[in-house]
Amino acid sequence: MTPLILAGKVAVITGAGRGIGARTAQRFAQSGAKVAVNYLRNHAAAQAVVRAIADAGGDAIAVQADVRDPDAAAGMVAAVTERLGSPDTLVLNADAGGFRPTPVMGLDFAAYELRLLDEMKAAFTPVKAVLPGMLDKGSGSILAISSALCRAPVPGFSLLSVSKGALEAFVRALAVELGPHGIRVNTIEASMIQDENSSVVDDEQQKELREWIPLRRLGRPDDVAGTATLIASDLAGFVNGASIPVNGGQVLY
């Protein structure tokens, strides 16, 4: 039986219709949290996650919102508050999307500008929406899903390295500013996750990466979800401003 280490928590997980977000929603619910499964377009996928949680005895709702839009994010938080209670946990998993490995010489500055803006909007806007409730409570946990590429770049992935680096700088700034209010802000730095983002890398490159990682496999959504569950819980109550590696030893620091 899964320990109910998130009992009493109300969590919003952005981009939770598939992959890491979906598995994190399920893990949170198994651990006792009430969960809002945010999605942008795929209503059926989000509802499937909600049904799986309900079938396992958990409590979840699907909430459509483009979290880059302030009005949509505010509406999402209002809907969650009405149906589940005021959110005290936020997982920033929604991704800018549309990424394909491209050498720097094949990019222009507009590509970086667009990626950075989308990445930061998808983090800043939902954070602003949940903060009033967290500040009222004097507690909360915000967790951003990032990438090992911001610390260990590889050729062709500069867009992702730069945008996730900006995300992590934002997290550290929030950790310092919000810590005195009882709100913890952390990052999970994941390596390539099987079936989540591995499709952009060919089979030979995936094989090379497996041989490079000491655990000799790619990550799985559940690897990230399990770590997220622990960090969101009060068991990690003194963890703040941290970048937690979930990479099988690919990057050591």
Automatic annotation (TrEMBL):
Top-rank EC class of the record's enzyme: oxidoreductase
Pfam families: adh_short_C2
Signal sequence range: none
Record key words, sorted: Oxidoreductase
Superkingdom, natural source: Bacteria
InterPro entries noted in UniProt: SDR_fam (IPR002347)
GO molecular function terms noted in the UniProt entry: oxidoreductase activity
Keyword Glycoprotein: no
Catalytic activity, EC: 1.1.1.-
Family: Belongs to the short-chain dehydrogenases/reductases (SDR) family.
Name the record gives this protein: SDR family NAD(P)-dependent oxidoreductase
